[in-house]
Amino acid sequence: MTIPTRPVAERAAESDSPPVPEPWLLPLLKRLHFYAGLFIGPFILIAALSGAAYALTPQLEKVLYAEQLNARSDGPPLPLAEQITAAHRYAGPGAESLLAAVRPAPEPGAITRVMYHDPELGPSEHRAVFVDPGSGEVLGDLTVYGTSGALPLRNWIDQLHRGLHLGDAGRLYSELAASWLWVIALSGLGLWTAAWVRGHRRGLLQPNLRAPGRWRTVSLHASLGFWLVFGALALSATGITWSQYGGANVSLLREQLGWQTPALSTSLSGSTGEEDGGTGDHAHHTHQAEPAPTASPGEGPNPATFDAVLSAGRDVNIDTGEVEIRPPAEPGSAWVVQEIHRSWPTQVDSVAIDGRTLEVTDRTDFAEFPLAAKLSRWGIDLHMGSMFGLANQLVLLVLGLGIATLGMLGYRMWWQRRPGFTLSDPARVLARVPWRARIGLGLLAAGIGVLLPLWGWSLLAFLALDALVAVLGRRRAGRRPVA
Predict the structure, then answer these.
(1) Calpha distance 183→251 (Å, rounded)
(2) Per-residue pLDDT in tens (0 to 9) along the chain, 483 residues
(3) Separation CA 125–CA 214 (nearest Å)
(4) 286: which strand partners?
(5) How far apart are CA 243 and CA 292, in angstroms?
(6) 3-state secondary structure (DSSP) of residue 189
(7) How far is 70 from 134, CA to CA, in rounded Å?
(8) Please, which residues have CB within 8 angstroms of residue 15's CB and are 6 or more apart in sequence?
(9) Where are the beta strands (DSSP E) in 265-358?
(10) Which residues, listed in sequence order, are joined to residue 347 by a DSSP beta bridge?
(11) Which helix (H) or strand (E) is 143 found in, with range?
């Protein structure tokens, strides 16, 4: 039987055609995804599990601290002055001079928090005395943290999530996790897309549980990653804003672009002192009331002034029950009444008031924030689970557990591939990359490294490790006997 052959001219033309370039993007994505998952995976695993635990804390707080959080009386609330005086008596001598803020009961059945400075507590922590607004009975006192007013359980989990209870040094772990999570997510999406384009679609949208061995794990990892990728990107972006080095650079970038959140000026000298400018036209409104009573120097703010400044704020832009009233931080500064309602619709307006005359000296309104500042506020509230209440918390719980599962599946894939797993020579992978692409990728990596320093340094560590793997691989190959 004769074998049909193509014409000689056709074969000659093919031999003169330029060689087809080898693919280079997919090997790079695989290598990046592998290294980031292998070495950053443990940090992401801790952040994901602690974040999932944090999502449950509002409900846990209601159960664990029910005695402090629920009023026992049904009567109308007493004036804030009486509630604050009751808290002072409970807190002990000198409490008046340590008064930091008051959060009136936002609704019937809730309690009032009277918050004090305490030098033994950490940054953003206060001692809070819980007062029944109807009777003035003190229900207890606990340490609270931040604008969220987190109680000890939530604060402990928050500090674990943020920095492993190791202070600033511990925060490096969460910054590494946030800085690399988006890279892992995007490179994984690229690998998923490549598999889809090549026609290997089974098990990409839903796991193929009938696949044998490692391929079942691959299917679980790929399908779960696809459904979680956009949530992972959102968590990474919002998490970076809280980081030490990357977060500071993001804040600087926002400042240069004019995207920062307007700041309320508490100066009584007439200057607004705002970051963005643009709310000065709201200043110098006068509340039609008698001047507020003041305290003698060294005795702390007069409790009656809290009622007066809250009433003045209600006449301007404070229209939610969840508010915080802060006395002047220093002589010559104003009182602050600020909304702390973080769920949708967001209410975070604030007003500065001269406690002597009840004159409004400055105000900020969320409706007038720049779009970038609004997006930042919404992103943070979504990340913390307060934006949409229980639904938001459940999404965060699923995301946290899902990302943790992805990491464990990734390690299982790596283990199942042993002992035959080897990394290809990085020099061969790099040789496929066109020069223009190398320059472009180098500039992109340098730019990201400047914005996210920990990401940049860890990338250099990966490249150094890759070079070491290549050297050791070549030496091992050189010692192999020739067949």
Answers:
(1) 21
(2) 444 445 544 444 444 444 445 578 888 899 899 999 999 999 999 999 999 999 999 999 999 999 999 999 988 999 999 999 999 999 999 999 999 999 999 999 999 999 999 999 999 999 999 999 999 999 999 999 999 999 999 999 999 999 999 988 999 999 999 999 999 999 999 999 999 998 888 889 999 888 888 899 999 999 999 999 999 999 999 999 989 999 999 989 888 888 888 999 999 875 443 333 333 334 344 444 445 555 544 578 999 999 999 999 999 999 999 999 999 988 889 999 999 999 999 999 999 999 999 999 999 999 999 998 999 999 999 999 999 999 999 999 999 999 999 999 999 998 988 755 555 566 667 777 888 888 999 999 999 999 999 999 999 998 888 888 777 777 776 665 544
(3) 49
(4) 359
(5) 42
(6) helix
(7) 11
(8) none
(9) 285-286, 323-326, 335-339, 350-353
(10) 341
(11) strand 138-145
**Entry pTM:** 0.84
| Contact of 144 with 7, CB cutoff 8 Å | no
Which residue carries 């409900």 as its tokens? 59
Cα of first residue to Cα of last residue in the chain, in angstroms, is 38
Query: For 264, how many CA atoms within 13 A lie in the half-sphere containing its CB?
Result: 23
Measured CA to CA in angstroms, residue 241 lies from 179, 237, 387, 415 at distances of 10, 7, 17, 34
